[in-house]
Specification:
Chain A is an alpha/beta fold. In chain A, 39% of the residues lie in helices and 24% in strands. Chain A has helices at 2-11, 21-29, 34-44, 85-92, 114-118, 136-146, 152-161, 177-188, 207-220, 234-240, 258-264, 275-283, 307-316, 331-344; strands at residues 45-56, 59-65, 68-70, 73-78, 100-105, 108-109, 121-124, 195-199, 226-230, 243-248, 251-257, 267-272, 290-294, 297-301, 321-327. A 6-stranded mixed sheet of chain A has the order 7-8-9-4-10-11, sandwiched between helices. The two termini of chain A are 22 Å apart. A two-stranded antiparallel ribbon of chain B has the order 1-2. Classes of the chains: A alpha/beta, B mainly alpha.
């Protein structure tokens, strides 16, 4: 990282006109440092979208999505049904044509070079789809054959990795849902891709299967691979993902590292000597986003590191705190909080 | 690009050969084509047996000798050669020369009929007959195969994992076309081999007709027949593929592919009687030109086949159909978003 910082410092001489990262990048592209710029971009971000939009007639499936997926680690794409996750994945993979906006994969605009980028990606969108009359091995052999071919030993390794070696030669139509999901994961790993896109990979799996997929996902990114994971099982996502993006109604409403998002969004459970007066005082504070009564407590939405300001403000008005407990949000709670707000449109947060 | 398409075609065949459907369709194709060969074999033998048993009935009016069966004389087909050199050895003395001449003509006609039937199940004459049937049945069977091969990727949702392998939409489609066209060629070669085997067996177990086999069909004719049959399947494959891609459904592709085959002849017959101007359009319709190109008349409901369309004109029209339909299929396939499994 120090080398990259040095390189940026060397080639980038800021001027007053360059105010956004996009402008900086554009300026660099026009210089002799373009190749260095491309290398840096490819090193830092595997997926970048800029105001990516998809309309289906009057329905806006994805609305000006600017997504940035860093290289390495597991990135979670979260959102309720119909939030645009699968459409976004489809656009990244060239299956769905964007109405507007741009996509950059591995630092390169995919317009015209989509196929070369796709050869570096392994993806399963929605449920795995294979040929029922072929065995699991024959299905993988077919998909291996039409892409870049790595030989039969790769198939043996992948089937072993996902625990399908024993049933590899059975027809796909005889597979259970869990086995189909495993074969889907083996398919995504064909050709040793640098970027893996998994859409709801734990669908239909039992708890043991979910744990296996979670372990497998962690192992996938151990050797520098990037995994983009879409899931509605937020507890699972929280355990696996380093960063997340949250979509709601086609819009990106939060993006960042999981621990940073959870740190920014927090609640304090509070009991005071005069709760009515306390509500009045706290409502005037900048650090308080919202508050409500819950089980005889005041639930104050505020960043956990600013909870001291609450007791200070209350104390100055002679309202004394009798109980203050920081509530650590799970990703699931965080998700429900911000998507719930989005739906009721009381206030839109910028948590970036 | 071409090597990529060839590779994709090879992998399409990898999938297809593991299904029952292509083999069942090939079986049906073989059955019908061999029925023609063996049908002619049995027809020939029946005629020969009939002629040997009952012979040719000769009316002997005015000969002065009514003969052993009253006023009729029955002679064997085997006696025709004798009749030419020494009529008195077979016919009563004093048989008028006109009766002898008529009898000779009748003998020659029957011999020619036998020779034609014999040629129909012996090589190389059996091959064009088998390919003619193969074309008529093949249009239906390849409509089913094409719709299934292309539509199954929509129905199963496998189009997405294929395209996310970095295959490219145009190479994918080109690979499918190549595989289907190759399969058509392969099926016709199998029909040709099966016909040759059947012909050799049939020839071995039957007698050559008097005067030998007719030599109307040459090996070159047989080669042209297989080529024409193969080419005439291509525009129909393109039609079914285009409908399947347009409707994103194997069932729709099969339905329209099969329906058109029967509907064209029926609608043509109906509309031509109602509207005079339709007779000019009629000459540019697909099945009619396929029949004209292959010089056959086996399609269902066809009326005045080959009456006005030359082979050259038909070839041009079929080429235009193929290019136009393939162009539409490619355009639709490249422009549309790829969604999940459609189920059918």
């Amino acid at each position: 990282m120090a080398t990259i910082t040095l390189a940026i410092a060397t080639i980038y001489r800021p001027t007053a006109t360059l105010s956004t990262p996009t402008q900086v990048k554009q300026t660099l592209r026009n210089t002799k440092y373009y190749s260095i710029m491309r290398l840096l971009e490819e090193t830092l971000m595997v997926i970048e979208t800029d105001r990516l939009t998809k309309h289906y007639g009057p329905v806006v499936a994805v609305d000006s999505l600017s997504l940035q997926v860093p290289k390495g680690g597991v990135f979670g794409l979260l959102g309720p049904n119909g939030s645009g996750k699968t459409t976004t994945m489809g656009m990244l993979l060239g299956l769905v044509k964007p109405t507007s906006g741009s996509i950059r994969l591995f630092g390169q605009d995919i317009h015209g070079t989509h196929l070369s980028a796709l050869r570096r990606i392994g993806a399963t969108v929605e449920s795995p789809a294979f040929y029922p009359h072929l065995s699991g091995r024959a299905n993988l052999r077919y998909f291996q054959g039409i892409g870049k071919s790595d030989g039969p030993e790769e198939l043996d390794h992948l089937l072993d990795l996902v625990g399908l070696s024993q049933r590899a030669d059975s027809k796909y139509r005889t597979y259970s849902t869990g086995m189909k999901q495993r074969l889907g994961i083996a398919y995504t790993l064909l050709g040793n891709p640098e970027l893996v896109l998994l859409d709801e990979p734990t669908n239909g799996l039992d708890p043991a299967g979910i744990a296996e997929v979670r372990d497998l996902t962690r192992r996938l990114c151990a050797d520098g691979r990037t995994v983009l994971l879409s899931s509605h099982l937020l507890h699972e996502v929280e355990q696996v993902c380093d960063s997340v993006a949250i979509l709601s109604r086609g819009q990106l409403i939060a993006q960042g590292k999981v621990h940073e998002l959870l740190r920014r969004q927090g609640f304090v459970r509070l009991r005071t000597t005069d709760d009515t007066k306390a509500q009045r005082i706290l409502a005037s504070l900048d650090c308080v986003s919202s508050m409500r009564e819950e089980d005889g407590y005041l639930m104050i939405e505020t960043p956990p590191d600013r909870s001291g300001e609450l007791s200070k403000a209350l104390g100055q008005q002679e309202v004394f705190v009798t109980e203050m407990v920081p509530v650590h949000l799970s990703l699931e709670r965080f998700f429900l909080e911000i998507t719930g707000e989005q739906h009721t449109s009381t206030s839109k947060k910028a948590i970036r | 690009m071409m090597s990529n398409v060839a590779k994709l075609a090879q992998w399409e065949w990898f999938k297809l050969q593991r299904r029952w459907m292509p083999w069942i369709l090939l079986g049906i194709l073989l059955l019908f084509s061999q029925l023609v060969v063996w049908g002619r074999f049995f027809s020939y033998n029946n005629l020969q047996d009939h002629l040997q048993d009952s012979g040719i009935v000769v009316p002997l009016f005015g000969t002065g000798d009514p003969g052993p069966q009253g006023r009729l004389q029955v002679i064997s087909i085997a006696s025709c050669n004798v009749l030419e050199t020494d009529p008195s050895a077979i016919l009563p003395v004093g048989t008028p020369s006109k009766v002898v001449a008529d009898l000779l003509t009748r003998c020659q006609q029957l011999q020619a009929q036998l020779q034609r039937q014999y040629e129909g199940f012996t090589l190389p004459g059996s091959l064009p007959s088998a390919f003619e049937i193969a074309r008529a049945i093949g249009l239906i069977l390849f409509a089913i195969l094409t719709a299934s091969a292309i539509g199954s990727d929509y129905g199963l949702g496998t189009l997405r994992p294929i395209l996310t392998r970095g295959v490219g939409r145009l190479p994918y489609l080109a690979g499918k076309f190549h595989m289907l066209i190759g399969a058509a060629a392969g099926a016709l070669i199998v029909v040709g081999i099966a016909t040759a085997v059947s012909s050799l067996i049939a020839t071995g177990i039957t007698e050559t007709p008097a005067g030998g086999a007719a030599a109307a069909t040459t090996w070159a004719d047989a080669g042209i027949a297989i080529g024409k049959t193969w080419i005439s399947l291509i525009p129909y494959i393109a039609l079914t593929a285009t409908v399947t891609i347009w409707m994103r459904s194997a069932a729709a592709g099969m339905g329209i592919g099969l329906g058109y085959y029967f509907a064209e002849g029926l609608l043509t017959a109906l509309l031509s009687t109602l509207f005079d101007w339709f007779r000019t359009i009629d000459d540019y319709l697909l099945i009619r030109n396929i029949d004209a190109f292959a010089d056959g008349s086996l399609s269902f409901g066809s009326g005045s086949i080959n009456s006005a369309i030359g082979v050259g004109q038909a070839a041009i029209i079929l080429a235009l159909y193929t290019v136009a339909l393939a162009g539409i299929a490619i355009r639709l396939f490249r422009q549309r978003d790829v969604t999940g499994a459609s189920g059918g």
